[in-house]
Amino acid sequence: MTLHLRVGFMPLIDSALIIAAKDEGFAEVEGLDLELVREVSWSNLRDKLNVRLLDAAHMLGPAAVAATLGIGGVRAPMAVPIALNLDGSAITLSLRRFEEMARLAQGDLADPMVSAAALAALVARRRASGLPQLTFSAVFGFSSHTYLLCEWLAKGGLKLGDDIRFEVVPPPQTVEALSSGRVDGFCAGAPWNAAAVAAGIGAMLHCGVDLRSDCPDKVLAWRADDADRRSNAVARLNAAILRAGDWVQEPANGERLALHLSRPDRLALPAELIAPVLRFSLIQGGGRPPRRVERFIRFDREALKPNRAHADWILASMEAAGQVVRTADMLAQARAMFLPALFLDSSS
């Protein structure tokens, strides 16, 4: 019997496995009629999943943890039977700020320690001149992007929200926010950094893997009670995603995947912009050649296995960002969200 599932996603390369599961027929093989719903913000995905307008959702791992714990004003317990990727983000600055930092850098700006020190010097210079604070954005308050920004800034003795003003800007709005001067830099998932560089308004400063490799990123989230009572649906969707992951791993499928992702109802960006990112070739801007970054984003089966240790990093990062004071009970709840047993049942 074919099972209809509505799955929400945000327009990012890390939605690739959901999209490939649908467009390459892997969901159909598992007896699923998959309806993909493009959303405009992470809060929309969270809320629609919570009220069952969606069966499952492409979700920021930290956002799922925050919703489960009721941090940030919304309590929506979730379960994670499979991850969708590791890594895949980057920090991009406006060309003006990149050039200012390049002049202040004492060493190679590609070194996060050097770039953080240069940013600290720029912040100090602006403060002394009475200029407004710089503004950086991430795609959601509870996201690996926010925590990577915090880790980078800390290398220069800076704190997000104190020394640097912070805004939330959903991924599709990052290029416009940088172009308009609303933000001076952002951390977001691919391909929006490449889109800013291609538009001639940004320079990619660091990949997420420059700061932290194997960083928890997106997961497939279900309502916690649905994961319990709909185990067959969970297993079928997991299996379709695993098939898609194996397909995506094959370099020969990259151009076809880029075409799937480029559709107006998917990422709505040119395949010519997306395809190089899938090959780990990243345009940098700022007068620099493209950079090849091995394992820029991971879709392999080991990356897709729900990892309860990721809950530890997420909560530690939330605490470092001043979002929460960790307790043992919080950690237990967060770790319990990740369901490796359901993943193993699907992958066997």
Description:
The protein is α/β, with parallel strands linked by helices and 348 residues long. The chain is 46% helix and 18% strand. The chain has 2 domains: 3-87 and 215-269 and 299-347, Periplasmic binding protein-like II (D-Maltodextrin-Binding Protein, domain 2); 90-211, D-Maltodextrin-Binding Protein, domain 2, CATH 3.40.190. It has helices at residues 16-23, 26-29, 42-50, 61-69, 95-104, 112-128, 144-154, 174-180, 192-198, 208-211, 224-229, 231-248, 254-262, 271-278, 301-304, 309-320, 328-337, 340-347; strands at 3-9, 32-38, 56-60, 78-83, 86-87, 89-94, 135-138, 165-168, 185-189, 202-207, 218-223, 281-282, 291-292, 297-298. The protein has a 5-stranded mixed β-sheet with strand order 2-1-3-11-4, sandwiched between helices. Strands 8-7-9-6-10 form a 5-stranded mixed β-sheet, with helices on both faces. A two-stranded antiparallel ribbon has the order 5-14. It is globular. The relative contact order is 0.19. The mean pLDDT is 97.
